[in-house]
Amino acid sequence: MPQDPLRPTVPSTSRSAARERPTVLLTGGSGVLGRALIDELSPDFDLVCLRRNRPLNDPRVREIQGDLLSPSLGLTPAARHRLALEVDVVLHSAAETSFRTPPKDIVRTNTHGTETMLDLAARADAPMYLVSTAFVASALTEEDRQRFPGAAAYLDSKITSEQMMRTSGLPGAIVRPSVVMGDSVTGRISAQQGLTKAIGSVVLGQVPVLPGEFDSRIDMIPQDLVTRAIGDLIRGGVSKGEYWLTAGEQAPLLREITDICEEFAVQHGLPRPARLRLIPVDAVHRLLLPMLEDTPLPRSMRQRFQSYAELLLVFQRELPFDTSLGGPDCGSRPVRADIYQALVRNLESWAEMHSALLRRHRVRAAGASPAEVAS
């Protein structure tokens, strides 16, 4: 992990010079990455968080109620003007990330939100840092797009947002995290993400088959490595560029992840999951998904398979991403052993959150009824 950063050095404007700490306007503060960004930035910056409905209730930030989809954020002209005078840096992290959201709403939310924040950054004469995704590099087939319109809309919206940032002429940077895990030390995360849920299901033996190859990589990166890199870019006054916040060549292979899940299950008193069967990605549309549609399996299980298939088609890669981590003003480069240890810690955090579920599985494995165990 990098050493504690120096005091912030940007932006060097008269507004900042008049105050001890620059002000960062953060969107998406209630999200998984947003919560971790508050942890990272609050020691060095005054944080103003834009939120629509749900309050953050965090004494480290000042909240402004606004709507990314409303003209002028839903603020009065006077309020927007005061905000523009106050803001030194815009960090746009808010996005619609659920693949279950109607595709047109995903595109509208993510592209219009970027447009609105670019406008505010221009009015504030402030650099903007746009949080995108490393998976803009994923090429979906037309069949993928028809089967998984939510994933396609999400990636399209991020590609469009990046292009808007490039053509805006504003200083700042585009950052592209891969799959964000929990903290590298505690494993904790404010909300369990789709891939974490999928790995948890592997531990419980609920996923007998998935699309992929055992030598495919699943690039995942702890949230604190991502937020430290973003914080370093802002503190360093980086005013241009595109940064890959990824594990890169250190990303684990799918077979390594399944091995970790199997050992984790045994260590926690669960039956060793049956060896996961993988179906080639090119056979997903031809075999796996039609099979799920015709099977008598419960609807909830079919939906789980469909969701995990969608995630893995987007998130697994044969070749490693590039990574910018460890470069100038961009956090620290991940080490393979640290990524594996972070995965274990994430599983431990998941297990703490689902202790009752694990207890039920132990009961079933022991062949005893819950009433017998309780007595």
Brief overview, please?
With 375 residues, the chain is α/β, with parallel strands linked by helices. It has helices spanning 14-17, 32-41, 77-86, 103-124, 142-147, 149-168, 194-203, 223-235, 254-267, 284-294, 299-315, 336-353, 355-366, 370-374; strands at 23-27, 46-51, 61-65, 89-92, 128-131, 172-177, 179-181, 209-211, 217-218, 220-222, 242-245, 277-279, 316-317. The chain is globular and about 65 Å long.
How is the secondary structure organized here?
Layout (H helix, E strand, L loop, with lengths): L13 H4 L5 E5 L4 H10 L4 E6 L9 E5 L11 H10 L2 E4 L10 H22 L3 E4 L10 H6 L1 H20 L3 E6 L1 E3 L12 H10 L5 E3 L5 E2 L1 E3 H13 L6 E4 L8 H14 L9 E3 L4 H11 L4 H17 E2 L18 H18 L1 H12 L3 H5 L1
Parallel strand pairs: 1-2, 1-4, 2-3, 4-5, 5-6, 6-11, 7-10, 8-12
Antiparallel strand pairs: 9-13
Helix pairs in contact: 2-8, 3-4, 4-6, 7-9, 7-12, 9-12, 10-11
Task: Explain what you see.
The strands form 4 sheets. Strands 3-2-1-4-5-6-11 form a 7-stranded parallel sheet, sandwiched between helices. It has helices at residues 14-17, 32-41, 77-86, 103-124, 142-147, 149-168, 194-203, 223-235, 254-267, 284-294, 299-315, 336-353, 355-366, 370-374, and strands at 23-27, 46-51, 61-65, 89-92, 128-131, 172-177, 179-181, 209-211, 217-218, 220-222, 242-245, 277-279, 316-317. It starts with 13 loop residues before the first helix and ends with a helix. 46% of the residues lie in helices and 13% in strands. It has 14 helices and 13 strands. The chain has 375 residues and is α/β, with parallel strands linked by helices. Residues 1-14 and 369-375 have low confidence and may be disordered.
